[in-house]
Each structure stands twice: as C-alpha cells, then as structure tokens.
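To whoever is covering the structure queue this week,

Two jobs came back overnight. Logging them here so there's a record in the thread.

Job A:
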Amino acid sequence: RRQRQMCIRDRDDSEGDIGRVDHIFRAGKLGNDVLVVIGDAGERLVPMIDDVIVEVDLGEGVIRVRLLEGM
C-alpha cells in the first residue's frame, strides 16, 4: 500500500500550499512533534502545537496551519 503525503496549507490561504510533509521528529525527550515540510520555499519546520495546527483533514490529505512569525 502506498503512503499518501499530507499537504500543508496556510489557514487563510495567503501562502496557499506550503509543501508536503517529508517526515516527523520529536524535539527533545519531552518536546512536541515537528513536521518537516518540503516546498517551493525549501524546508520548513512546523511544530505540532495548538497555536500552529488549525485542522487536520485526513480524508483530503491536508493539514491547515497558522504560521507564526519567523516560520
């Protein structure tokens, strides 16, 4: 079975599609998970925290995010 990639989109679509999830890692022993997203702007690290993740739609294969300053 082929694994489907999740598309990352800006919440208000001002940036549209940000990229695709390449992989996930945990930041430190007690840290949160971080998505490594590859897109036109290169690699971005997107923390899996409530302030950033707005919606996860598994059916559509989309994660909507609210990008914080510096992301």
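Job B:
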Amino acid sequence: IVFIEAKWKNISKNEASSILENLRLKAEKFPNQNKGALFGMIAKKIEAKESLRKAGYVIFDRGDLTDGLN
C-alpha cells in the first residue's frame, strides 16, 4: 500500500518532513495495511526532493510530471 499526501504549493524540506511524519501517524489508523507501506507526497515544488527520495520516500513535484512534455 502507498500513502500519499498531495499539496499544491511549494514545500520546504522541513515542511515536507513534517507532512511525511504526520502521514505516518495517519497511516496508523490502518494497522493491518501499513506494514511494508510506502509513504510519499506530491506537490507543486518540493525542496530537497532528492534527499527525501534517498530516505525512502516516494516524492514527485510538478517538474517530474511535466519534464519531457515540452
């Protein structure tokens, strides 16, 4: 299962970390389904998204979705 938070704004690294931590807390409401779950977010722009990806999060922003469309 994948838990994703969506925000249509620019997100700082600290804000992203806070959002992802809150997402983990929300996922505790699904105790039988969050074992081995992936966590992530999609936003307009995410600062330091590569470091969040290296930490194991699924991270996408508008640039990831529009690259290659031009």
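Note for Job B: The mean pLDDT is 90.

Please reply-all if you pick these up so we don't duplicate work.
Q.
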